[in-house]
């Protein structure tokens, strides 16, 4: 039966906070197919803007003379369940519907990108000969290999390309000399096919080159499938589950089979085979004809898990992440939307993947802070995943060796019993958005029963060198045994800060109240907060002294020192190469994956880096884990400091001793009595969680209260503090503690002040904060200030 809807309620996608829809537009006959989630280009004031249909109606209060029709409907829309999810997010995180909706749009939708419309240019054989300065087309065999390797055109079955292929066999046509632009285009294309828009000189140049038979231009006929670095691809044949894995999987598979939207926390020690449980649960969902979303903390650092899913399920796996080009993301999105792919693996934004009939959402390494989005809306993908799963009747499966106290607190408060409660009583009855109790599943041993590596704390209070003698000896033993070590130092750069030995000057960022970090290879000092850079000083700007002291050790310096001590040359070529993995060494696309692959391929060596080295890597031949300055995370004034420290040490320990060679872990610290370190050294997650939950209960931190943080900022002196005071004055929240305003350090030239609310009743507190902030933001007296509200701050 045709729907009779004359009016589309449209949320225009603008970033303005003050502007909130939805606004009504009339739907002419031609747009009868428009539904919730449709993307429309609508006239808006004097502009044309993209909007999302959030509802349909039969009538409107807008007078007919002012009612207008959309200008255009885009081919692709957003699934209605994602429109619902976005409006929930807008309220949950004190944001606007438009900002939340912009997170769920098809990639490239705003630019009107459509599938298979991209023009791709490629050299013909003659073109390769010219570009490579090779004599003639007979000599093109190496070029052939190049194109074959790229596979974009040769691998496709597109008819349009056949003509271009035969042209390539002709000789280089005579004609005027190639112009500068044409030469530039040829040389750009010598690296392989490119979208026409990316070729220097653009379409005009390409047309001329095409006329001369040097280039073919065609509509790209193949999807842009991203290529994942193949690190540690598992066998396609699934292993037989261990007893513990089977026991953990059973209730998950049962819940999937029954379509019960239950929640599970898979608490399994490192190397206990959690990924295999995710894979089997995904298979169970697919068997029932349902789709799955698998969230991973950072795709660049976890290529292994993507590879395992691809190896197991093939092309039904789509990968969505920001490292892909917009075209690739668009195509992957579309494969999911059409049901050609039924499993999406990706980082937090993959929680918005258009997977229909969702049966399972996996959150791997659920303790990772990268699940929190740091732009407006400041959503937490774990919470969004929970909401989405509940809405779809899907199972939520979160896993970690170091689960958050919040998650475990929920398990424990649900009641006694080895697995918490979760007998299915309340599960089926849970209304959308309201989930049944979470149920904990345990994997207490590593696969094959290999022991967790012994962890020893090394007291650094009397040690002046960067490495404790025991740590040095352990690394030397690894070198002699030709095995591998991972060294964690959570600080990049060469030294933390520089001072003048004569006058005491400290080099600081001009825009932030923090010291600049020396990056020696780049000859620069950098602010790790705003990215400000300046050349490394030769002398003091204040007194002219050339005696500049470098304090502290970062990963860059550690890499150099290890290479020096253990015999690598500058390029790391030795029997014991040193690899460095941090935001500097792995900045390019795919660089982290390449580094990890190189470390894996090396017969032996050391991987040095920031917390990036402690992610879920599975390298069986790592026999030593070493943590430097383990208590550095404890020195942050943050209620999550203990949790972070425990997780970091436990996770790093989890990388060691995964193979038959066994392993051990050394932890250097200035605070060897710190409970989080002692518990980590004892592999005592339960002891740590019990202590941590007691501490949080006493202090009124999550999970015993919800935190909301308001940060006011302004370049104008005093304005941020005044705005924060005004927000504070407007806050009246029952059953909540309000802390501040307190000043924060200056960032990007802006003074900042924050208020923290610890609330027992989440929803009313979020509403009250939103209202108070909006009132102050609308007050012209505070127009110099900006406001950000962060619900569940990290
Ligand atoms: P976790 O994610 O819990 O740290 P992984 O999923 O990385 O653990 O598993 C550790 C290793 O054990 C991997 O190499 C994996 O392929 C292997 N593995 C997992 N399950 C089994 C099994 N049932 N039999 C044999 N090997 C397994
Ligand atoms: Zn000086
Ligand atoms: Zn700065």
Keywords:
30 strands, binds zinc ion, seven-stranded parallel beta sheet, alpha/beta, single chain, six-stranded parallel beta sheet, 794 residues, binds adenosine-5'-diphosphate
Description:
By secondary structure, the chain is an alpha/beta fold. 30% of the residues lie in helices and 20% in strands. The chain contains 21 helices and 30 strands. The strands form seven sheets. Strands 11-12-10-13-14-9-15 form a seven-stranded parallel sheet, sandwiched between helices. Strands 16-26-25-17-24-23 form a six-stranded parallel sheet, with helices on both faces. β20 (524-526) and β21 (533-535) form a beta hairpin. It is globular and about 80 Å long. The model is unreliable at 113-117, 134-174, 219-223, 228-235 and 417-434 (pLDDT under 50). One zinc ion (ZN) binds at residues 509, 511-512, 527, 529-530, 532.
The main β sheet shows up as: 7 strands, parallel
Radius of gyration: 29 Å
Helical fraction equals: 25-40%
N-to-C terminal Cα separation, in Å? 49 Å
What is the number of strand segments?
Answer: 30
Q: Can you list the strand order of the major beta sheet?
A: 11-12-10-13-14-9-15
The helix/strand class is alpha/beta
Number of helix segments?
A: 21
Low-confidence stretches are 113-117, 134-174, 219-223, 228-235, 417-434
- Ligands bound here? adenosine-5'-diphosphate, zinc ion
Report mean pLDDT, rounded to a whole number: 84
Beta-strand portion reads 15-25%
Q: Name the overall outline.
A: globular
């Amino acid at each position: 039966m045709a729907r009779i809807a004359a009016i589309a309620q449209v949320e225009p996608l603008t970033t303005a906070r003050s502007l909130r829809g939805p606004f009504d537009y009339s739907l002419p006959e031609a747009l009868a197919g428009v539904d919730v989630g449709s993307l429309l280009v609508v006239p808006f004031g004097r502009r044309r803007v993209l909007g999302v249909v959030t509802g349909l109606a039969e009538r409107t209060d807008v007078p007919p003379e002012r009612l207008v029709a959309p200008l255009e409907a885009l081919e692709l829309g957003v699934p209605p369940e994602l429109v619902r999810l976005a409006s929930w997010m807008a309220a949950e995180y004190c944001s606007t519907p438009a900002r939340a909706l912009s997170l769920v749009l098809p990639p490239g939708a705003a630019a009107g990108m459509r599938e298979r419309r991209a023009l791709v240019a490629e050299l013909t054989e003659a073109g390769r000969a010219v570009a490579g300065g090779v004599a003639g087309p007979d000599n093109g065999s190496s070029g052939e290999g190049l194109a074959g390797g790229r596979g974009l055109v040769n691998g496709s079955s597109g008819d349009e390309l056949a003509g271009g292929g035969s042209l390539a066999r002709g000789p280089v046509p005579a004609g005027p000399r190639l112009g500068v632009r044409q030469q530039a285009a040829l040389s750009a294309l010598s690296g392989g096919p490119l979208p026409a828009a990316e070729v220097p000189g653009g379409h005009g140049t390409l047309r001329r080159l095409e006329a001369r038979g040097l280039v073919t231009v065609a509509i790209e006929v193949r999807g842009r499938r991203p290529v994942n670095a193949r690190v540690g691809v598992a066998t396609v044949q699934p292993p037989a589950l261990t007893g513990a894995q089977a026991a953990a999987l059973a209730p998950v598979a049962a819940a999937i089979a029954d379509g019960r939207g239950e929640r599970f926390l898979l608490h399994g020690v490192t190397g206990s085979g959690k990924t295999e449980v995710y894979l089997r649960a995904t298979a169970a969902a697919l068997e029932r004809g349902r789709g799955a979303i698998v969230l991973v903390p950072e795709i660049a650092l976890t290529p292994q898990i993507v590879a395992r899913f691809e190896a197991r399920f093939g092309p039904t796996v789509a990968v969505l992440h920001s490292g892909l080009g917009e075209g690739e993301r668009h195509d992957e999105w579309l494969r999911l939307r059409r049901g050609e792919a039924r499993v999406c693996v990706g980082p937090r934004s993959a929680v918005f993947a258009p997977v229909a009939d969702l049966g399972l959402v996996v959150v791997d390494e659920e303790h990772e802070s990268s699940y929190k989005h740091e732009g407006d809306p400041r959503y937490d993908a774990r919470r969004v995943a929970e909401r989405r799963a509940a809405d779809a009747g899907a199972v939520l499966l979160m896993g970690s060796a170091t689960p958050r106290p919040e998650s475990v607190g929920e398990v424990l408060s649900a009641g006694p019993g080895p697995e918490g409660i979760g007998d299915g009583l309340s599960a089926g009855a849970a209304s959308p958005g309201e989930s049944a109790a979470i149920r904990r599943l345990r994997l207490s041993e590593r696969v094959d029963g290999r022991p967790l590596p012994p962890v020893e704390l090394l007291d650094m209070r009397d040690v002046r060198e960067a490495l404790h003698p025991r740590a040095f000896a352990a690394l030397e033993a690894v070198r002699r045994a030709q095995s591998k070590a991972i060294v964690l130092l959570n600080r990049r750069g060469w030294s933390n800060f520089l001072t003048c030995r004569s006058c005491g000057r400290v080099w600081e960022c001009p825009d932030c109240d923090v010291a600049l970090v020396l990056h020696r290879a780049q000859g620069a000092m950098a602010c790790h907060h705003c990215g400000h850079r300046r050349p490394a000083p030769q002398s003091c700007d204040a007194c002219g002294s050339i005696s500049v002291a470098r304090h502290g050790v970062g990963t860059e310096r550690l890499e150099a020192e290890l290479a020096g001590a253990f015999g690598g040359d500058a390029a790391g070529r030795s029997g014991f190469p040193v690899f460095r993995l941090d935001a500097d060494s792995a900045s390019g696309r795919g660089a982290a994956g390449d580094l990890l692959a190189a470390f894996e391929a090396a017969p032996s060596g050391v991987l040095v880096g920031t917390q990036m080295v402690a992610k879920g890597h599975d390298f069986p031949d790592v026999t030593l884990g070493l943590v430097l300055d383990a208590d550095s995370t404890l020195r942050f004034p943050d209620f999550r400091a203990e949790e972070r420290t425990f997780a970091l040490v436990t996770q790093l320990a989890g990388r060691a001793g995964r193979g038959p060679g066994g392993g051990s872990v050394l932890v250097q610290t200035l605070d060897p009595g710190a409970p989080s370190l002692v518990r980590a050294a004892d592999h005592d997650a339960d002891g740590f969680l019990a202590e941590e939950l007691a501490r949080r209960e006493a202090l009124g931190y999550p999970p015993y209260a919800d935190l909301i943080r308001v940060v006011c900022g302004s370049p104008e002196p005093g304005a941020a503090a005044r705005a924060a005071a005004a927000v504070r004055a407007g806050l009246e929240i029952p059953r909540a503690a309000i802390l501040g305003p307190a000043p924060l350090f200056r960032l990007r030239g802006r003074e900042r002040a924050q208020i923290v609310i610890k609330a027992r009743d989440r929803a009313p507190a979020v509403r009250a904060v939103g209202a108070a902030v909006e009132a102050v933001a609308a007050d012209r007296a505070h127009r110099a200030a900006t406001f950000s509200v962060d619900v569940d701050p990290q």
